[in-house]
Each structure stands twice: as structure tokens, then as C-alpha cells.
């Protein structure tokens, strides 16, 4: 009776159950376990006894939507659980403020439905039903109303005593609305003469049928059956119905090894024995690739067999108990017998104990993990506080004909067609133009030593280190084996894994399972959920493929800075995104209101997905990569395939002809190498004028595919730039979305009346770059960025305030989720902040930490480390000061300086920046300084002079008051105050 696919039809099992409380963790697990055992996909729960803050306990355990109505104490409470495999699209939700009903208005595929979960009052209250059904009458579509109505419709048939005088008015009202809304009590319609009860009252020694479904009459033909299950765990029986919706084609679910099994010593021992046995028997009879492919199929079968057997043993025991309980209940319905009552009570006790033991065992690992981590800012805490409704279901999408489709199979087909077209090569006949373009560029090349290092063969030790370095907790690829499996059995798998890689290298192709990826989709922020291009494709690769890619990436990573200009700060060691933003701000400040000057932020169309492979291989060769390393890259991109996953449906594989797959450890570095020639061409292009500050001309800044171009002489530069990008795109696949690209004219008059018409959006009020809103007026940047962030933080902490988390947990939530956002702003924006900002944040933090109660300790004490009696609450003001003073570290860098350092150096042409801070008293320097970022640095140092003294004692710095003078001979000159002539 579960959700099935029979002759292209969708049958959904819907269950309603009064659980009589699920606040205790063990009871909650019993209820969830029972629901999973029933295999229902939509569940109505009554008497949850959960408050709003407790709902997270259900949301974290149910794979889908959880809609609820709760009361402000531990009473009443109703929930509707909708499994993520059900394509239900919610339009509207209505909740009873006292937790007696919840209504969801929406549709499944083409059927508009109102799902209603009801927990009726115990007293004779007709007004409750009046309010409920009058509300329902305003909603279009069919009704499925289920729950504990606390009111029998026909006492003669539905109560063991044959009468009920307690709720005459409520019964009359309920019956009238059943007629008015053309509803059907589905169980009674299918069982007109049967007597069966859903609730047993041990106090009143009576049984009654107060749990039922009311459905719209037009749905009657879609109901296959309706039945009651045994009374277990609660004193109410669950009632279920099976409804037939319409045709639906669903792929079988992808198998995944549950990582928790790897914590089970018996399981690890069993699987380890099977691994050893397989490779002892299968030696040289077949190729290494065939052996590896067969091994994954074999070990998957062994794992499934073991886990299924364990689950089956427990399931059979519980099913036998349930059958005995059901049989006794039927006998008791016919004839009361005290002996049978005692026997029934004993069986129910056994069932509940078995269910409780199962719940306790499943909690064991989770509790142990929480105990181990405590209040630490780790993954479990992040999992607990994240928004639970991050569902990736795609309920509707616009197809190629422009129509909106809600059919899951059609949705999957739409995405398959979209990606099949996206990954189809468009630059087959572009080799001549490509070579002409690239031959004019001067490529930095790898040294022979580096080339030899990259070309060396893979080793067991290297693979072992690679497996160790790959992060755990990632979704496995098509084979269902996560990286944790390889970590657990690493020593047993290294040799066969290496043999398979070496054979693949010789054959110049990977085994089929290593070439296949599953594409999952993530909606891009702010994009329409009904358009295919709005989703970012993430390729789920097999862990064995990832190990190979990661090994190559670990080799390449240290040498990327030698090949990539410091204009590019994405995916390059020791480079960060705030370098780009600080450069933009410095240029904006230095060239404020300059005529005939602009910043152009380019928006690339699916930049990672359009890189053409012939172009990529050609570029890698020009960077000096050796034949062996290039061969590995070609192997990874030989006949790769991918299937698209949407709403549990997996498409037929498509063949990839281009792209650097997002989700592959090697892809980021390959992408920045592929886009670097464009940056090289823009830097050297004649007919294109950048913005000059001091001796340096600034033309381009990149963070992966986020590109900003700095331009002057716009009437000449912009056409030449567009021509260059268009030419580059013809052989590389790189294209620009002009309407989504933004141009910011630095002059105020030109923003209103541009000196040249462009296809780009005129960003009169600025644009967003790497998460920072860039405004034309520098003084507006702080409120434009910080005000929305503070509002967001306040809303987030208000939402989290009611969570049952300790004080240390709350502080760690601030560390983990709030601090990184502010730290990014502090590093990126070298601008003074108003004192009121930190006062406001302190107030918000205090309310959250103390749950809106009177603080018992001032924040100053909570800032202190543990050894001094504090709790290490982040002091954002100190982080801000630290971020500003940290920028001075780059003045002393022995590596190539970020471009923003050169801009700030231009403001002090006669003195190196690394000596500037030591040339005079900071207060005097601040008065003389006009560069905003340097002024902020000095102001911060003056406010917290102890930090400045620490900075002045930096090992690379000269003694305070001493500067370095170059002449015929180098000598040190002691300064009395300020700069003096020598």
C-alpha cells in the first residue's frame, strides 16, 4: 500500500494517527519508526504535544515537508508530514492558533487538494467545526480531512456501548457540513455493515471509532482502500487510505551505504572479510578495471544482504506481534474477555518495548556524537540549526514549448534536454582562430622539475594520503559507496585501486562507472524556480573517481600561483576574494567622479559548463604541462556521461562534450587555467585603456568566473573589449550575458547620461560583486551592506531563540553562522564603522544568549577565554580591528603584492608602505593621510594602541621611528618625528 508505480500510475498511502504525545525522544523515535514501517507518504498526526520550538526534532528526522500547528504548552498539536518523493506543491497554509487543525492548500501534479489534519475538542463544541468548515469552504479543490474528531458519527455502529449523549451538538454540526461540502466518510462507505473501533479507553472500558477520513465525493473513485491498523504505541489505531492520482513514472531509488553502519564493528568485520575474500579469489583472471567494477557490484550486494537481513529479523518479530494483537482486537470487538484483555495488554507491552529498543539503538550513535562534540561548533550543530525546509524538490518548470508542467517525468525530461544541449560542443571548427589568438600571448611555463613531478606515476602512499584528505560527509556518487567506505577499508583497497588506475592510464579510458555522474540541482539565489537555467548543476562523482581527481589536484595546487596572474584570486593558494573587493573600493575612491571611466561587472553564461575541451587541452599544453599529466586530464574527459536527478527520478545518461564538472576536485583549477588567456589578452590588448593609478594600469580583476573590467576612453575601449570577448568565446565556449552584466560609470552625470550606449545594465545605484554591494558613493557602502546584514542576523537569531540549546551552544551558533558573515565584511570593507553598529549587535546577541531574559552576566565577561571564566563569545569589535590591522601584513609580503597594495602605495610615492607606519606618530599620519583604507587602518590603531604596538613589533618591521633610505650606500636614519630630509 506504499507509494508504488504500477502501469504508470501513482498510488499514495495516507495515514492519520493520534499518537498521544511524542515529546519524549524515545516516543518520538517510536512514532517515526512506526510511520516508516507503515510506508506512508503523507501522514496526519494528532496530539503531538510539541511546541513550535520542538518541531525541529521531527523536521530533522522526516525526509520531506513538516507542516504543523501547535499550542503554547505541551498539549494538542497537529502535524502533516509529506514525503519528499511526493510532488506536492504548497500554495497556502492555514494553522489553528490553539493547535487543533492545520490546512495545506496545494496540488499534487494536476490535482488541486486541501489536506486537513484535525484534532477535535473533547467537549461538545459545534463552533469548532463551524469555524473549520467555513474556512475550508473558501478554498478551491478537493478535500482530504483526517484525524481524531473526538466525535462518532453514528453511536449505534461506532461505539461499543451503542450510545453517546456527550456530543450531540458537535455531531449534528459535523454531519451538516459533511452534507454541505459533499463529503464522504470513506471507511464507512467501503464497510457499511462492519464494526471496528479506532480508540480504546481503559478508563471508560469502552471502544469507539472517532478517527476517520472525510474526503470530497469526487475523490471516491480514486480511493482504492481504507483500513485501520493495530492499536500499538498509542491508544488509537492508525487509519490509512490508498489514493490513486494519475500516471507517474518513477525511477528506482539510488542505493547508498548508510555511513552509520561503518560504526558497527560486526558490520566492518563482515565486510572486511568479504573484501579480502574477493581479491584473494579474483587475481589475474580478468583486467584490473573489470575486477574493480565487479568488486563494487559484489560488495554492494553483500552490504545490502547484510543490512536487509538485520532489518528483516526485527521487522518479522514486530509483524508477528502485530498480527497477534490484531487477532485479539477482533475477538474482543465481538466478545469482551478479561483473560484476552490481559493477553492483549502483554502483547502490546512487548511490541512497545521492541519499538522503544529500536528507537534507543538508532539514537545511540547520534547521542554519542552530540556528547563527543558537546557545544562545539561542528557539523552536528550546523545540521541542527540550518533551515530544515531546504528541500530540493522541483514542483514545476517551463518546458521547451513555454508551458508550465508539473508532471515529475516531464520535469526530468525538461532538465535532461536542457543539459544535453548545454553540454553539446559548439566550437568544432574553431582551431585556426584559437591558435591565432593564443599564439600572440606570452604564457608562463612550468619548470622541468615541476613538470617531472606532475608527470610521475601514482603511488600507494599518494592514494592513501589523498583518501585521508578528502572530506567526509559528502553525498556518494552513482555507485552509492561514500568516501567513508574507502577510509574504513583503505589498506585493503589501495592496491586494487592503484592497479585499476594504472590500467586505465594504459587504455586511455576509465571504467564505465567512473565516467558516470549524477547531476543534482541547486536553485541559484534569487532565481526563478520554474526555469531550467536557474539551477546550478552539481556532479555527484563516484568516490573512486574523486580519489583520482583529488590526487591530481593535490599535485597541481602548489604550482597554480606560478601560472596564474595575481589579478585572479579564485581557487589559488594564499589568495582571497577580499583582495578583489578592496581593489575595487580603492579604485572607486581614488577615481571618484572621474569622467569617461567605468567598471564593468561581467555575467558569464554557465561559465564552468561551457568550457570546450580542445581549447582546454591546448591551453594546458601552452602552460607547459607534460604529456603524462595531460594524458590523465584527457582520460578524465574521455566519454564522460551524466544522468539528471529531479524529484527522485533519474534520467537516461547524456554524453558530455564540454564543461568542467562542478563537484570535481580538479575542476576549479582547470577552469582558472582556461580563463587566464582571456585575462592575458585584456591586459595586453591595444585599443583598450584601463584605469591608471600611480604607475600601474588596472584593467581586470577575477575571482574564478566573476570578472570586473576597469575602463577609460570608453567609446574606444568598450567596443574593442566586446570584440575581444566575442572572439575568445567562439573557440573557448565562454559567453557573456549582456543584460545581466552591469556597468558603473564613475562620473555622476555620466551615470544619468552615459557617454556611450552599451548592451549592459546601467548600474546607477551600483552592483553586487562577490556578495558586497558596491555603490557609486563610497560613504553609502557601509549602510548599504551592514544594515541588511544586521536585519538578517536579528531575524535569524529571533527564529533560533526558542531552540532548546544550551548557552554554550548558542554562543557556538554565533561563532559558526554569524561571525563568518561579519568577518567577510570586515576584511572586504576597509571603511570606518559607526559605534552604534556594535552597540546594536551587542543587544541582539545578549537577547539571544539569555533567551530574551534579564542577563545574569555582562557580555564583557562572556568575551573572556574559558581559563579566565568566560565563554569565548566573539567580540565583533575586536574582530573588526583585527581585520583592519591584518591588512598591513600584505605591506610586508615577500611574494607578489595584491593589486590594492600598489594603489595604496601610490598615495605615498616616496616611502614604502612597510615603513610608512613607523615614520611618525599614528595620529600625525592620520591627519596627513587622504587614502580612506590607510586612514581606517591608522584610526583603528589609534583606538587600540596595544594592538598597534604588537603590529609594530612584527619581525619583518624596522625599529619604531626608523626608515630605510637608498643611496650610494644603504644606511638607517633615525627619525625624531615625522619625515626629515637627508
Automatic annotation (TrEMBL):
Assigned keywords, A-Z: Coiled coil
Domain of life of the organism encoding this protein: Eukaryota
Gene Ontology molecular function terms on file: catalytic activity
PROSITE patterns: RT_POL
Keyword Coiled coil among record annotations: yes
Positions in coiled-coil regions: 311-338
KW Coiled coil (keyword) present: yes
Signal peptide: none
A Pfam family the protein falls into: Exo_endo_phos
Reverse transcriptase domain: residues covered: 503-774
PANTHER family: REVERSE TRANSCRIPTASE DOMAIN-CONTAINING PROTEIN-RELATED
Protein name: Reverse transcriptase domain-containing protein
Lineage: Eukaryota, Metazoa, Chordata, Craniata, Vertebrata
Amino acid at each position: 500500500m506504499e507509494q508504488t508505480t504500477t502501469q504508470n500510475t501513482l498510488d499514495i498511502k495516507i495515514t492519520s494517527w493520534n499518537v498521544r504525545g511524542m515529546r519524549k525522544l524515545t516516543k518520538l523515535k517510536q512514532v517515526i519508526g512506526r510511520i516508516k514501517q507503515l510506508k506512508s507518504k503523507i501522514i496526519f498526526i494528532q496530539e503531538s504535544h510539541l511546541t513550535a520550538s520542538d518541531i525541529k526534532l521531527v523536521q530533522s528526522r522526516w525526509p520531506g515537508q513538516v507542516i504543523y500547528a501547535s499550542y503554547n504548552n505541551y498539549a494538542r498539536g497537529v502535524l502533516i508530514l509529506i514525503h519528499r518523493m511526493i510532488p506536492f506543491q504548497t500554495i497556502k497554509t492555514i494553522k489553528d492558533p490553539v493547535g487543533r487543525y492545520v490546512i495545506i492548500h496545494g496540488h499534487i501534479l494536476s490535482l488541486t487538494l486541501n489536506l486537513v489534519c484535525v484534532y477535535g475538542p473533547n467537549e461538545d463544541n459545534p463552533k469548532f467545526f463551524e469555524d473549520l468548515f467555513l474556512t475550508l469552504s473558501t478554498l478551491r479543490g478537493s478535500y482530504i480531512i483526517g484525524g481524531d474528531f473526538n466525535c462518532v458519527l453514528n453511536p449505534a455502529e461506532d461505539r461499543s456501548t451503542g450510545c453517546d449523549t456527550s456530543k450531540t451538538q458537535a455531531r449534528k454540526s459535523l454531519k451538516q457540513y459533511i452534507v454541505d461540502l459533499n463529503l464522504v466518510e470513506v471507511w464507512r462507505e467501503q464497510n457499511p455493515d462492519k464494526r471496528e473501533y479506532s480508540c480504546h479507553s481503559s478508563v471508560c472500558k469502552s471502544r469507539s471509532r472517532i478517527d476517520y477520513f472525510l474526503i470530497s465525493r469526487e475523490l471516491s473513485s480514486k480511493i482504492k482502500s481504507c483500513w485501520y491498523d493495530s492499536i500499538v504505541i498509542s491508544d488509537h489505531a492508525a487509519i490509512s487510505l490508498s489514493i490513486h492520482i494519475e500516471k507517474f513514472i518513477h525511477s528506482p531509488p539510488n542505493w547508498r551505504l548508510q555511513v552509520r553502519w561503518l560504526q558497527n564493528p560486526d558490520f566492518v568485520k563482515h565486510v572486511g572479510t568479504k573484501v579480502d575474500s574477493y581479491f584473494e579469489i579474483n587475481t589475474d583472471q580478468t583486467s584490473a578495471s573489470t575486477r574493480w567494477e565487479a568488486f563494487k557490484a559484489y560488495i554492494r550486494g553483500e552490504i545490502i544482504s547484510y543490512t536487509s537481513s538485520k532489518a528483516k529479523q526485527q521487522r518479522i518479530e514486530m509483524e508477528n506481534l502485530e498480527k497477534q494483537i490484531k487477532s485479539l482486537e477482533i475477538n474482543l470487538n465481538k466478545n469482551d474477555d478479561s483473560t484476552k484483555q490481559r493477553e492483549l495488554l502483554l502483547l502490546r507491552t512487548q511490541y512497545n518495548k521492541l519499538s522503544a529498543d529500536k528507537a534507543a539503538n538508532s539514537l545511540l550513535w547520534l547521542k554519542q556524537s552530540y556528547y563527543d562534540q558537546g557545544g562545539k561548533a561542528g557539523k552536528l550543530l550546523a545540521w541542527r540549526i540550518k533551515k530544515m525546509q531546504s528541500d530540493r524538490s522541483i514542483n514545476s518548470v517551463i518546458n521547451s514549448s513555454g508551458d508550465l508542467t508539473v508532471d515529475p517525468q516531464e520535469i526530468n525530461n525538461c532538465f535532461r534536454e536542457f543539459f544535453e544541449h548545454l553540454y553539446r560542443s559548439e566550437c568544432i571548427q574553431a582551431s585556426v582562430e584559437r591558435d591565432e589568438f593564443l599564439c600572440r600571448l606570452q604564457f608562463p611555463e612550468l619548470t622541468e622539475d615541476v613538470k617531472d613531478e606532475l608527470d610521475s606515476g601514482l603511488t600507494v602512499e599518494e592514494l592513501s594520503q589523498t583518501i585521508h584528505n578528502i572530506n567526509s560527509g559528502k553525498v556518494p556518487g552513482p555507485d552509492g559507496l561514500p568516501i567513508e567506505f574507502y577510509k574504513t577499508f583503505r589498506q585493503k583497497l589501495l592496491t586494487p585501486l592503484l592497479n585499476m588506475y594504472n590500467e586505465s592510464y594504459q587504455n586511455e579510458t576509465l571504467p564505465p562507472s567512473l565516467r558516470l555522474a549524477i547531476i543534482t540541482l541547486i536553485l541559484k539565489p534569487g532565481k526563478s524556480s520554474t526555469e531550467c537555467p536557474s539551477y546550478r548543476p552539481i556532479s555527484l562523482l563516484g568516490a573512486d573517481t574523486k580519489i583520482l581527481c583529488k590526487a591530481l589536484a593535490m599535485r597541481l595546487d602548489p604550482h597554480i600561483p606560478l601560472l596564474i596572474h595575481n589579478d585572479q584570486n579564485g581557487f589559488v593558494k594564499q589568495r582571497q576574494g577580499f583582495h578583489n573587493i578592496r581593489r575595487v573600493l580603492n579604485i572607486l575612491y581614488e577615481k571618484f567622479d572621474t569622467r569617461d571611466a567605468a567598471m564593468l561587472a561581467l555575467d558569464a553564461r554557465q561559465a564552468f559548463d561551457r568550457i570546450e575541451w580542445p581549447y582546454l587541452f591546448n591551453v594546458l599544453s601552452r602552460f607547459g604541462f607534460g604529456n603524462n599529466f595531460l594524458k590523465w586530464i584527457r582520460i578524465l574527459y574521455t566519454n564522460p556521461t551524466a544522468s539528471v536527478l529531479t524529484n527522485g527520478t533519474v534520467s537516461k545518461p547524456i554524453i558530455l562534450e564540454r564543461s568542467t564538472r562542478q563537484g570535481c576536485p580538479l575542476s576549479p583549477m582547470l577552469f582558472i587555467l582556461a580563463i587566464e588567456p582571456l585575462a592575458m589578452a585584456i591586459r595586453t590588448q591595444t585599443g583598450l585603456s584601463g584605469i591608471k593609478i600611480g604607475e600601474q594600469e588596472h584593467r581586470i580583476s577575477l575571482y574564478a568566473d566573476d570578472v570586473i573590467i576597469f575602463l577609460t576612453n570608453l567609446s574606444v575601449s568598450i567596443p574593442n573589449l566586446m570584440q575581444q570577448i566575442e572572439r575568445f568565446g567562439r573557440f573557448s565556449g565562454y559567453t557573456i550575458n549582456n543584460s545581466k552584466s552591469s556597468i558603473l560609470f564613475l562620473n555622476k552625470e555620466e551615470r544619468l547620461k552615459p557617454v556611450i550606449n552599451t548592451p549592459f545594465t546601467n548600474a546607477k545605484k551600483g552592483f553586487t560583486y562577490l556578495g558586497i554591494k558596491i555603490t557609486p558613493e563610497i560613504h553609502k557602502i557601509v549602510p548599504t551592506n551592514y544594515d541588511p546584514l544586521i536585519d538578517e542576523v536579528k531575524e535569524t537569531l529571533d527564529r533560533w531563540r526558542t531552540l532548546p540549546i544550551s548557552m554554550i551552544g548558542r554562543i557556538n551558533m554565533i561563532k559558526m553562522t554569524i561571525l563568518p558573515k561579519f568577518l567577510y565584511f570586515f576584511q572586504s570593507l576597509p571603511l570606518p564603522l559607526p559605534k552604534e553598529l556594535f552597540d546594536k549587535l551587542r543587544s541582539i546577541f545578549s537577547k539571544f544568549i539569555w533567551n530574551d531574559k534579564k542577563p545574569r552576566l555582562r557580555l564583557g565577561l562572556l568575551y573572556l577565554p574559558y581559563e579566565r571564566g568566560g565563554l569565548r563569545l566573539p567580540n565583533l569589535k575586536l574582530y573588526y580591528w583585527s581585520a583592519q590591522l591584518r591588512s598591513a601584513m600584505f605591506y610586508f609580503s615577500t611574494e607578489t603584492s595584491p593589486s590594492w597594495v600598489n594603489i595604496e602605495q601610490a598615495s605615498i610615492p616616496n616611502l614604502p608602505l612597510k615603513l610608512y607606519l613607523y615614520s611618525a606618530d599614528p595620529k600625525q599620519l592620520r591627519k596627513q593621510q587622504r587614502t580612506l583604507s590607510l586612514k581606517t587602518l591608522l584610526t583603528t590603531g589609534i583606538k587600540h594602541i596595544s594592538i598597534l604596538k604588537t603590529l609594530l613589533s612584527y619581525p619583518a618591521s624596522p625599529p619604531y621611528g626608523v626608515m630605510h633610505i637608498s643611496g650610494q650606500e644603504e644606511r638607517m636614519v633615525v627619525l625624531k618625528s615625522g619625515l626629515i630630509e637627508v
